[in-house]
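Re: [help] complex structure
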Amino acid sequence: MPWWPTGKRDTDLERELRSDLELEEEEQRERGLASEEARYAAQRAFGNPDLIREQMREVWAWNRLESLTRDLRYGLRTLRRTPGFTFIAIVVMALGIGANVALFTVVHSVLLKPLPYRNPGRLALIYEADPGHRHASPWLPVDAGSFWEWQRSAQAVARMALVSPFQEYNVSGERGNLPEVAEAAWCTDNFRRCSEF
Amino acid sequence: MTRQQEQQRAKLLQGTLDMLILRTLLHGAAHGHQIGKHIQRTTNDFLQMQHGSLYPALHRLEKRGWVISKWETAPDRNREFKYYRLTDKGRKQLAVEESQWKRMAEAVARVMWPAAEEN
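Output below.
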């Protein structure tokens, strides 16, 4: 057992049981029994020392730890005896762990990691709202007139830039490549400065 | 007897033994052998338990903090024994177990000897 108090407690426990047995033996001898007989009488009066030792160990719960190491040893031995099963089990676990790690890496970079801006929490996207529900979407694009008005009135507290995303452009192919559609956005010239705020 | 009943019975006996040990230690510190002898003598040898079975109980009580133990030299024999001593927590526990035991004994008595109750 790799558990330091075990040795000390074990000797203490042995000493305690032995002192009881010896005392009982002495008393039996004083009562006039022959020494051999006295020892047997003492053992009878005491009970099964192995059982008692076991019960005392249970009280201090070393047994749980002992049985854990024992289980581990059995497990390892069984695995060594069935290399095919062991191989498959290891491969399955490795794949499972690998898949989890890959998935988490994606989730982390896409969803969890903050955006690479200095103050991502202070960036905001502004829409115009449609409280009257006349449109299918409550989020409406901002018209340029309102934007300039807002920018001027919020000058002291915020920087604002105008973005018009989802512009598709044809990129013509060169050297035998096919032309492609590229996603692009228009923005006012202070857009980059806003994100570095 | 089902396993559960068996466990309950063992628990009841165990609890009773704990109570007897705590009560014995009320007289002062004692080692395992003395406790066993005292219980045997006081019950007129009715509780013929093998005194080895006291030790798991003593260690259980020690772990719960109801008794503390120390190796000391016995005054009559020139040898060291592990003496157990009641703690304040143990004293409180003894009061709790005593009242529980009393309640149970009274309940059993009322069923067994109903006439005696009415007299």
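The mean pLDDT of chain B is 83.
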